[in-house]
Amino acid sequence: MTPVVAHMPYLPNLSSPKKSIYNRSVKSLSAELDRCGTLGVNYLVTHLGSHMGKGQDLGLKMITDAINQAISENSNEVTLLLENTAGTKNSMGSSFEDLRRILGLVKERRRVGVCFDTAHAYAAGYDLHSPRGIDETLTKFDSVLGLATLKVVHLNDSKYGLGSGRDRHEHIGMGYIGEKGFRTLLKHESVRNLPFIMETPIDERRDEAGNMQKVRELST
User: What is the CATH number of domain 5-219?
Assistant: First the structure.
């Protein structure tokens, strides 16, 4: 299976203004990059954290300092992927412009890319329900970040509506993005050859195998 993708733990907060939390978070990121290098993992996905009410500018400084430090401590070829967020209060990286600001301050630019989460993007206000919305969203991604930065897609439906700012994943086709949205997205020339990773629920309605089957149905 290639590429191999790992994900940072959820507890670290790389944008935290609290020194003790921040220092542990940076240490965790550096350790994960080291492990990925040892194991031959290609990509490490990370959430960008919360500035906890201290403002985007401080959050930007904290996270870029964290990335630069962790990468400088690991001279391997692991690529760190920044995951877009859902626009929840105080979160970093919910817009393409926010991600561009972060990437612009990374010293070893070749070591960093983007993981695009569909549920997060929809919750942050990027329309992935209609063919037109998907075209506009991916065109904007390309103009702001460049499609070359996009390495992995987290394929999740959204339990809440467009621009809700709520990070709640739903089964493929059962949420607000819907089957029409995924049918268009999965076949879109901008992303169809990228690796897709589902982070969908498991409940009485459907399991992981059921979501995989639905993805295959919508992509044919």
Answer: 3.20.20.150
